[in-house]
Predict the 3D structure of the following.
Amino acid sequence: MSAAYPRLSSAAREELRRRLLGLIEGHRVVIFSKSYCPHSARVKELFSSLGVDCNILELDQVDDGASVQEVLSEITNQRTVPSIFVNKVHVGGCDRTFQAHQSGVLQKLLQEDPTYDYDLIVIGGGSGGLSCAQEAAALGRRVMVLDLVVPSPQGTSWGVAGTCVNVGCVPKKLMHQAALLGQALTDSRKFGWECSQQVKHNWETMTEAIQKHVGSLNRSYQRALREKAVAYVNSYGEFVEHHKIKATNGKGQETYYTAAKFVIATGERPRYLGIQGDKEYCITSDDLFSLPYCPGATLVVGASSVALECAGFLAGLGLEVTVMVSSQLLRGFDQEMAEKVASSMQQLGVRFLRKFVPLQQLEKGSPGKLKVVAKSTEGTEMIEGLYNTVLLAIGRDSCTKKIGLEKIGVKVNEKTGKIPVNDVEQSSVPYVYAVGDVVEGQTELTPVAVQAGRLLARRLFGGRLEKVTGTVQLVQKLSSLYKEEPVKRRSPWTPTLASLLQVYHTLFWPLEWTVACRDSNTCYAKIICSKLDNDRVIGFHVLGPKAGEITQGFAAAMKCGLTKQLLDDTIGIHPTCAQVFTTLETTKSSGLDITQKGC
Amino acid sequence: MGCSKSKEARVAERQADGKRGRGGRRAAKDHLFSPTSPENSTGSASTALTGPSAQLQAWIDSHSEVTLSKSTCKRYTEVKKLFKSISVPYFLLELDQAENGRGLEGALCELTLKTDVPVVFVKRRQLGGHGPTLKAYQEGRLQNLLKMNGPGDLPESYDYDLIIVGGGSGGLAAAKEAAKYDKKVMVLDFVTPTPLGTRWGLGGTCVNVGCIPKKLMHQAALLGQALRDSRNYGWNVEEIVKHDWERMTEAVQNHIGSLNWGYRVALREKKVTYENAYGQFVGPHRIKATNNKGKEKIYSAERFLIATGERPRYLGIPGDKEYCISSDDLFSLPYCPGKTLVVGASYVALECAGFLAGIGLDVTVMVRSILLRGFDQDMANKIGEHMEEHGIKFIRQFVPIKVEQIEAGTPGRLRVVAKSTDSDITIEGEYNTVLLAIGRDACTREIGLENVGVKLNEQTGKIPVTDEEQTSVPYIYAIGDVLEGKLELTPVAIQAGRLLVRRLYGSSTVKCDYENVPTTVFTPLEYGACGLSEEKAVEKFGEENIEVYHSHFWPLEWTIPSRDNNKCYAKIVCNIKDSERVVGFHVLGPNAGEVTQGFAAALKCGLTKDQLDGTIGIHPVCAEVFTTLSVTKRSGENILQTGCG
């Protein structure tokens, strides 16, 4: 066998791909095999023992065998033979086929009635699920989306499109913007605008405006689904048996649907503390953005990005805000940046209670007030505080427990509730896939889910070939009040590798802030370069206004192999914040002063 | 200390420069009457060996000082005395004593168009008669001329390693960088007041009358928008908020003052000599510095850097310098300009019009032909449309021909008469302020470049340089806006200055890359660009070989106030033949500069459409639109946004 496979033109490759998909779709069982392969032989024996006719393609006996293998591996991400398809579903190789046989999945697959109600049912109508459904529909498939929001303990629920649009990115950024505008009002006086000193904020006006926008987004998503002929059913989906799902609507009516393939995109919901009174009295980010009254003095419990973002904009709207943190801030992010975020929030009046957790007592104090008792994580110290609102932002749990996964044998990580998938988003059950926040090890970001959903649909139903894998550059963005910190990581490293890294950094002062005379030397730029790899930029961090806008382009540059030299050769745009990255000179190891004096 | 090294460098330079150097001159000394000199550039000597013209030319060419006189002339004795007193060897020809006196006199007359004597030539240059010669001596020009061209004429040692003419962004960056190499550096910076008397401190255009005040005033306008938006976000701001021009300019000027001060401190710390004086070349390696009291000093340096930048152009019509202001005046104008006519369609014109309208003024822009020449015209027109929608009036295809004052005041009232560019129609309008922003001229005409022979583009006044920023005179360099065919941007000047100094004094060989320079225009709808415009790309690669991807987008922050949907626009231009490499990047929208910078780095890294598609977006920001561009312009598909993606 020659090592190099023949180079196919993209047209020829597409043609071959179509041929293979035709083969797979047109037969009950297809085995891609090599005549000398013992594993292939075992599989063939298995099927003949089951009395099933197989369509077998021996790759070593056809002229374009190597090309077939190449294209096949693109479809399945499995490079080896045998490769088995049963009723259009890729079961896997020899081992997986035998496992499927033992668990009964194979028999189930073989019994498949090919006349399912749908080609694809997507469970969960969030960013990932909808992008997958729409793409599949655009490729001519019959697609259904099941989406039902279980109300929060406080009774909050919302429309189509999931967390990002309803209780995530969108309302969060809008409230962040409201806080920024509060700062703009203060700044505007310095720039000659004669607005009054004391401008009050009206919570109801803001949330109403935001909810109106969210509502218009819900409607536009529904319209898009209709236009693409995706069946949208506002019901809760739960697997009842293989290829069959029960859909329960808000009135408790149950309907059953079948489909050839399923995508789980149910996402996550906020976690509760599990202490007395938490569900009765506390709110979460699910409730905050449509809260009908101003939350007043607020305790935010947690140190996740959600916690700090909410604390930031609440403080920016003029509320008294306290953040209770059990251990680390922004776990998983660059810790230097995380601490800088916290200290800038402190400057804005946010109070931090570090190393404390709420105790088993949370009670309604005097009307409209909550008494929170917290205990030190390091000692026996106890503190007590009175707040109007307690916002929990201690983490999120996947919605995988009550959707009948156990009925069809989809494996779930018991501890985290996340679904492990292979690198083509396939779960342990071949015809069930998962995208978005429910996927184990996946970055929980909207654009990641959107990209994954879209590419999955293309892989399943034809179209361009791509996959979202571990090599995807992760771009995370965190905005707290006035401060945004996006963190970009490529690979984690251990301290012993530190000597192979060069860190360049500097503080900077946005021009717009100079006249307003605020926050000199709080904005911070940092890049991490690998000395072994030509000073390639492997980490990019910025703390300052418009951090997301700044980071996006550099993310693309890192995708193209940005090095320190190329960064230095890039000419800055004056006067912007982003230009600071083109003139980074001070290394962290030099210990030189990075405070800015001039401009 | 640094001098020993610089002397070596100087020797090398002389050798490289040997053509004009010693060889010819030494030879000429021994053959006083040799009519052919290797450096002869007039060509007349080659015509005949014996003619009086040739003979005269030969003398002039071969002696550093030639005086033609008559023995009877009284005035000559004074000139003679002068040359003796400064102990300069001189060559005297007394016409009335010479063999062919009449012929020579005739030839002299032909050459100088003068009949009286004495006539003094210094270094082949006709200095003139008795009066001009003495004056030249008093001014030091004579001494400098005598020392020009040739090793014997050079100063023994230089006052400085590097003298930089112009203390703007480029000049200062170069100065600070040179100081890092322990070089003795001087910066000459002097702001000639505008016709209305505005002047400013150290730091050049960008800091004083450019980028910095412009962006701050743009920010003031943005904050005006923020005030309006904030009501939708629940802030109880009063319905009508007035703007106070004086308070804004004071705040802006205070900031600028602190920057001016910061620059001076930085120069002091780096031991760079700063003189607030006007620099003019007077001879090789020599410059005259004139301060605001008219006091003159001469400094010598091994190398010079011209970084004098540009100043606004005037119309050259009646009333323009008396009554109009330019961007040089606007940012420190002590009173609110009121109803303003902006003349021009440069980015300066549109930016100023934008922020003046943004703080609530009545603004009209008079445009001769197209908006933002040199920028992508698709984008330029979108900017124009947006400005019109936001209440800025445009008068197209008209040019002012007269500006008259109706009433003096702060502001006063002016009448502007303008004429159509394609007919005889004239129109009249009344404004409080007329702001000219029709272009800028390089400050190269009055810095004595002719005295040292630095070549200029006569038409534009710009200085052509090599790719190492060297002018036609090897020891004189130039950076920044004075350069011919280069971009007029602060960071370009800074980069060029730094890299130049590193090449001169460090061991660097890195040259300034003027390709893919990103820029941004702070119009109300900001514009960020990097690489080629669509027109340029079509011209360079052919229309069939480029693919343009584009999309409108609606910044999330603008949805709540529900404004400007389908105004923001993203466009990339790809070269199909080169794996869809991105050769042009254009964005219209808030924070366009911040968005563009990173993509500029990506273009530097050879970004392709595939790589762009493979980049995961950051949600929800404007910049993420570039990671999901799917509609080609060719397809003509709808790019209006109806919802959020």
User: Anything to note?
Assistant: The longest helix of chain A spans residues 203-227. Chain A touches chain B through 88 residues (CB under 8 Å). Confidence is low (pLDDT under 50) at residues 1-5, 464-496 of chain A.
